[in-house]
């Protein structure tokens, strides 16, 4: 028997929750702002409430000091507004790669939700609601959850593919007509563009590219304007649109779903939301498909491009912390570099500026300091690119890879890094 799909006022929908529940929220541009505001308003009644999810774009109001002891945030992806709350104990970090979150935060997992909130487009004439810009972990979780609450928004684009819940799978819904949160483009400088030119040289025509968000990924996409028949996997962002319009991204040579992009998250502006609405070029799939290294490993010429905070001379990649101070999470980086290592013609590229803090510190370091997280182990990073060059690491000895990394470090720090070479050098 199906669920009632009953329309309620927002306060009444949140009123269906009980104290002590674990509630899973969708991420990114699908963040359900109306629900979050009401969850905070009812915090006293719902305490101790556990909210769970990935990357949010809002200001994390439930992590403010006044909600300590009433709401805790459980996440695998810290964002800047949640770092201080994590340090004072209001946030719990689960060190998990994105592929594993589908099982960890689902029925039978250690963080099985009592309720899942989804942000959806209105149902079609057959009763199907599209999860729009985010299906990654919310869709599998909603299909298994004891209680499903939907924020139905006419401004949510109706994306296609494996993106749907039927109304019979939703308990209660509320109407919320407001703009989606947007992920704005990043300002680009000479450093980002120099890195992008280096990385573009590694990407052959016909490759399928996975790339993240931020200034360096944006610059890299802009540097691919003369490539041919590129494909896209995992994430769709604004700076891919000019390449689609130019005929650079055609997905014609993709192994998986030729002619279509396989996407689990759409992050960008209204222009991007308009593009994906009922667009058959965009095939939405949950992270259990898109992030699966076994699936990725069958995509010929799969190029994974990710960023980092620092890389040490052994090739260990830290994209998460400054020493023991956690700033981010594993995200999908490990999923994709592992998949790239298995893919015919696959490559894993780590792209980062050579310095940080206004040029005062090197981001190529002798050794990761004690307490630092290793996001990608040394044996999976094929190339490390900075504005000074590209270090090819695959198959090289410890000493050879260290020297290659020193060559792409900022010249001001190379002598110091030479002192960190292995003693056999």
Overview features:
425 residues, alpha/beta, Glutaconate Coenzyme A-transferase, eight-stranded parallel beta sheet, 15 helices, globular
The description of the largest β-sheet is: 9 strands, mixed
Span of the ends, CA to CA: 70 Å
- How would you describe the oligomerization state of the chains in this entry? single chain
Tally the helices: 15
Assign the CATH topology of the largest domain.
Glutaconate Coenzyme A-transferase
Number of strands: 26
**Mean pLDDT, rounded to whole units?**
96
- The H-level CATH homologous superfamily of the largest domain, spelled out, is Acetyl-CoA hydrolase/transferase C-terminal domain
Name of the CATH first level of the largest domain: Alpha Beta
Low-confidence stretches: none
Beta-strand content estimate: 15-25%
Helix content: 25-40%
Helix/strand layout:
Layout lengths: L5 E2 L2 H6 L6 E3 L8 H9 L1 H4 L2 E5 L17 E5 L4 H8 L3 E3 L4 H7 L10 E6 L7 E3 L7 H5 L5 E5 L7 E2 L2 E3 L5 E4 L14 H11 L7 E4 L3 H8 L8 E7 L3 H6 L14 E7 L2 H7 L5 E3 L2 H4 L2 H4 L5 E5 L3 E3 L4 E2 L2 E2 L2 E2 L6 H10 L4 E5 L3 E2 L4 E2 L1 E2 L17 E4 L2 E4 L5 H11 L2 H8 L7
Parallel strand pairs: 1-11, 2-3, 2-6, 3-4, 4-5, 6-8, 8-11, 9-15, 12-13, 12-16, 13-14, 14-15, 16-21, 17-24, 21-25
Antiparallel strand pairs: 7-10, 17-18, 19-20, 22-23, 25-26
Helix pairs in contact: 7-8, 14-15
